[in-house]
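Appendix C reproduces, verbatim, an entry submitted by the partner laboratory led by Prof. M.T., so that reviewers can inspect both the input and the predicted structure.
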Amino acid sequence: MGGLVSYAGGVLCASSNAGTLQLSGQTGNLLKWQTSTNGGGTWTDVASNTATYLNFVNATNGQQYRAVVSNGGSCADANSTAVTLVTSSTACASPACDNAAGAIVVSVASTTAVGIEQRIIATNASGVIQYIGNPGSGTISNVAGGQYLVYVVSYDPSIMPAPALGLGASLSSVGGKCIQYSNQLAYRVCVTIGLPTVAIVSPGENSTATTSPMVSGTATPNSLVTLTDPTGATLCSTTATAGGLWSCSVTLSPGSTTLTATACTSVGCGTTTTSFTAVAPVSTPVSGTATAGSTVTLTASNGSSVTALASPSGSFTASFPAAFSAGLNSVTATVCSGTGCASAVSSFTVGSCSNPPVGGLVSYAGGVLCNSSNAGTLQLSGYTGNILKWQTSTNNGGTWTDVGSSTATYLNFVNAANGQQYRVLINTGESCADAPSTAVTLVTSNTACASPTCDNNNGAIVVSVASTTALGIEQRILATNASGIIQYIGNPGSSTISNVAGGQYLVYVVSYDPSILPAPAL
């Protein structure tokens, strides 16, 4: 069976266009792609691509594409249903103002595929790239007013040749072995005259900072700049200098956060955001023994000091508020009583750590899980360094146990217990101490094992299956009972399972690469 070739977009710009075609419903091996510009009268082979997708650039009005499929042996080749692309000059411009703040803002769908990078690109009507967004960002700022053709480009930068995405490059020269395009979007940017501008320079997007960072940036001279946290609470306010600079210090909780800067003048207000990970300062614990009940003064060679009270058993522990510098260090412990003072010195060498690791944040995008059966995927973000291992704790962090040998930025769990925690250890080499990520705590309950309402009364399970542009990734719905036994499995890419018996189910969308072994035993 040849299957069906489709394009999810609509009418394309006649002077410049690009997109990705998808083949589905075929049975057999894909031999080649073909194109026709005369209504299917003749067909021309398209390169040697045998993937289930095909990128096109600058298609003409009425141009058709099809795939040729074979089962081998003496079976005749089967042609897919062809897709016909439509182009028009009216699709090269947006009739309305899509953004009045000098920016391009589009939805960038998240992907679970490891290593896939997604960027927004904006071209002019001739297909020359004018702006390129940061990886994973849905916004391009500081865009001049005008008409643009916008795409979300998904690619794997580790697979060569990588796409040649550069300002001034034409779509026809981008190339790339592992790349797909979103639907084309005509986008008009309008810039309101006199609206104040504001930018956050530090902390930068997707960076790390302390929990007491100095936030700084640029803004319209003499405008009032206000910083707010994700809840909208004001963290600080300041006035931009005559030169357009501003800064203020804030206090944050550890973890991922987003700050919003708003600059206002009599004309109006402009806003911008930055997302980063706030990391608590490192503390250095020192322990020892002394006379029970005595006060121990600990003085470091760098001049800092702390005190500790010896326990009834004679042990004490205190933490210096910062890490010791690289090289030779010492700590002097002093205990005084009515008869005099006694001291002990401990000298030690701290190895060099020019690039300290940042543990980042482990998160789970779901909510409360069923306590009798559950599964999911954890994600690590905002870290700096190399992933050493994943760990789990079932006693609120009292002890941690290594989880397998995974060094990926994600971890799958099955049948987690209520309150079970997961974290990652990060290291950057040298003599740097391992940095643990912020742990995620999973919550389970028997109330999460069943839906209180009827989700479908037509004998079907219908859920949203987010499309992924990752090559070779297959997505299926599976439904289990409350004991975790699979009852139904959907077809690849389908958002519906039909002919389902009435009852309660736990439903998952499973994404995997069937070519990588061992494949999941679904």
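The chain is about 0% helix and 45% strand. Additional entries are available on request from the coordinating office.
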